[in-house]
Automatic annotation (TrEMBL):
GO terms for biological process: D-arabinose catabolic process; L-fucose catabolic process. GO terms for cellular component: cytoplasm. Keywords: Carbohydrate metabolism, Cytoplasm, Fucose metabolism, Isomerase, Manganese, Metal-binding. Residues 331-467 form the L-fucose isomerase C-terminal domain. The keyword Repeat does not apply. Residues 253-309 form the L-fucose isomerase N-terminal-2 domain. It comes from the Bacteria. Residues 2-155 form the L-fucose isomerase N-terminal-1 domain. This is FucIase.
C-alpha cells in the first residue's frame, strides 16, 4: 500500500470559507476514511487551504512526510491559484479529486485548477466521485501504488551478474539512460564471484535445503549425471552466495547472465533464480528479490515495477510457442519460474507439491536441476518495458493462465521442453498482432488485472503506453 497526502482546497473569501469549512472537512474525513480502509497510510493537511500562505505551507508539510502521491481535494469552488502554489511546493505526482455532491461546485473547482496546471505543463490525474465511494478509493489507490513503485526505483541499485548473454541485445540497457530516466544505478558483478562464493558457502545449510526440497517437491529426479545431490547442493550454494552479495552490496533487484559460462562449466542458476523470486525458502518467509535470468535488464526493471505495484512474485518466461489450434501460448524458459506460481499459495508446501526438479537438458552441459511446474490458472496482467529507437514503451495486455488434465498437459509440454516450467496463456491480443509488434523474446506476468497501476506508472515515467486488447 502507499502513503497518500490529502489537501483540501477552499474558497479564498473569508465569509465563504467560513460557511463551507465544516462541509469540506466532512467530505475530506470521508475520503481519508475510505483510503485508510483500503489499506493506505494517509497524511492529511493540518488545515484547509483558504489562503495563499496556507497553500504553500500545508503542501510543504505534507511533502515533508514523504508521501508517494498527493491528492488535492475539491469539495467546493476553490481559488485555482491556491492549487498552483500548493503544486509548486509538492514534488510527488498529483491527483485532483472532485466531490460530485451537486450542492456545491466541486467539479468546477477541480476543472479550473486542472486547466491552470495544464497551462504550466504540470502533469496530474483527475478523478471524481463521492468521497466514500470504494471505486474512487480503488482508482486513487492504483495511482498511489504506481507512484510508490516509481519512487522506489529512484536511488535503487540493480545487480548485473555477468554481461550480455548470447548476443541478446534486448537484455542490455543503457546505464546512463536508466539513471536519468528511472534513477537506477547498475552494479556490475563478475560471475566468477558467484563461483568463488558458492565454493565457500555453508555446506550444512546447502544439505538442509536439499533435504527440504526432497521432502516437499513433487519429485527430485536424480539421474546420476546431469542431476545429483552434489549438483543440487552446488545450485543451492550459488543461491546462498548471491544472497550474501545482495546483502553486502545493497542490491535492490538483480539479473544473472548464466549462459554460457555457468551453464557450460559450473551449474545452471535455475534454483537460485527461482528462490530469489519466491517469497520463501527453506528458512521460512522472506522478501522477494526480483531476479531476471540471462541478466535481462529491461526484464528485471519490468519485474521490479510489477512486484512493487502488486506485492507478488513476477513470472519471467520466453514466448516459446503458439498453439494455434487452442489459441494458447506456451510461456516457458529454462527452468526459472518462481515456485510460488505452481499454486500461488501462501503455503510453500502446497506450491512445492506441484514442482519437479528434473535434470537439465542438452543446452546446459554443467547440469543441475530445472525447476519444473505448470503455472496455476487465473487472470493475469502481462507485459514488458521494451525500447523502440531508444525510447521506452510499456507493452501491456491481459491474459488468462489455463491448466488441463494430466494427459493434455503432458502432450503440450512434450511439444517443447518438458523439463522446463510452463504457463499456458490465452492472451487478449491476436497472435499475428502480438508476434508482429512485441519487442522482446521475454515476457512477464503478475496475477489479476493490474493495468490501472501500470498505466499510471507509464504516465508518471513519461513512457509511451502500447496496450493491446481484442476489443
Amino acid at each position: 500500500m502507499a502513503r497518500i497526502g490529502v489537501i483540501s482546497i477552499s474558497d479564498g473569501r473569508d465569509h465563504v470559507h467560513a460557511r463551507n469549512a465544516r462541509f469540506i472537512q466532512s467530505k475530506q474525513d470521508a475520503l481519508v476514511s475510505s483510503l485508510t480502509s483500503a489499506g493506505h497510510e494517509v497524511i492529511a493537511g493540518r488545515d484547509l487551504v483558504a489562503t495563499n500562505a496556507l497553500a504553500s505551507s500545508v503542501a510543504r508539510e505534507v511533502a515533508a512526510a514523504g508521501v508517494d502521491v498527493t491528492i488535492f481535494y475539491y469539495a467546493v469552488w476553490s481559488f485555482p491559484h491556491f492549487t498552483m502554489l500548493a503544486a509548486d511546493a509538492t514534488h510527488s505526482p498529483l491527483i485532483l479529486v472532485a466531490s460530485t455532491d451537486p450542492t456545491e461546485p466541486g467539479l468546477v473547482g477541480m476543472l479550473a485548477a486542472g486547466g491552470a496546471l495544464d497551462q504550466i505543463g504540470r502533469t496530474h490525474t483527475r478523478l471524481w466521485g463521492a468521497p466514500d465511494d470504494a471505486d474512487l478509493a480503488a482508482r486513487a489507490g492504483a495511482h498511489a501504488r504506481a507512484a510508490s513503485a516509481v519512487a522506489s526505483l529512484r536511488g535503487s541499485t540493480f545487480g548485473r551478474f555477468g554481461g550480455r548473454p548470447m548476443g541478446m541485445n534486448t537484455a542490455v540497457a543503457n546505464t546512463d539512460q536508466w539513471m536519468r530516466q528511472f534513477g537506477v544505478d547498475v552494479e556490475e558483478i563478475d560471475q566468477y564471484e558467484v563461483v568463488l562464493r558458492a565454493e565457500q558457502a555453508d555446506t550444512g545449510e546447502a544439505a538442509k535445503a536439499r533435504e527440504w526440497l526432497e521432502a516437499h517437491a513433487a519429485g527430485v529426479h536424480y539421474d546420476g549425471k546431469k542431476l545429483t545431490p552434489e549438483l543440487l547442493e552446488r545450485q543451492i550454494r550459488s543461491y546462498l552466495a548471491i544472497r550474501d552479495i545482495i546483502e553486502e552490496r545493497n542490491l535492490d533487484f538483480s539479473g544473472i547472465k548464466g549462459q554460457p559460462e555457468l551453464t557450460e562449466h559450473f551449474a545452471t542458476m535455475d534454483v537460485t533464480e527461482a528462490f530469489l523470486n519466491d517469497p520463501y525458502d527453506w528458512n521460512g518467509p522472506k522478501p522477494v528479490h526480483v531476479t531476471a535470468t540471462e541478466a535481462d535488464m529491461d526484464g528485471a526493471l519490468t519485474m521490479q515495477i510489477m512486484h512493487k505495484v502488486s506485492g507478488d512474485p513476477v513470472l519471467f518466461a520466453d514466448v516459446r510457442h503458439y498453439h494455434s489450434d487452442r489459441d494458447i501460448w506456451d510461456l516457458c524458459n529454462s527452468g526459472q519460474h518462481a515456485t510460488w506460481y505452481a499454486a500461488r499459495s501462501d503455503d510453500p508446501a502446497e506450491n512445492l507439491s506441484k514442482v519437479h526438479l528434473y535434470p537439465e537438458v542438452f543446452f546446459f552441459p554443467a547440469g543441475g536441476a530445472s525447476v519444473q511446474h505448470i503455472a496455476a490458472p487465473g487472470r493475469m496482467t502481462l507485459g514488458r518495458l521494451t525500447r523502440q529507437a531508444g525510447e521506452y514503451r510499456l507493452q501491456l495486455m491481459l491474459g488468462e493462465f489455463e491448466n488441463y488434465d494430466d494427459d493434455t498437459n503432458d502432450t503440450l509440454m512434450r511439444q517443447s521442453t518438458p523439463e522446463w516450467p510452463h504457463a499456458w496463456a490465452r492472451l487478449d491480443v491476436p497472435a499475428e498482432t502480438f508476434l508482429s509488434e512485441f519487442g522482446a523474446n521475454h515476457i512477464h506476468a503478475i496475477p489479476g488485472d493490474r493495468r490501472a497501476e501500470l498505466r499510471a506508472v507509464a504516465a508518471q515515467l513519461g513512457i509511451r503506453l502500447h496496450e493491446w486488447s481484442r476489443d
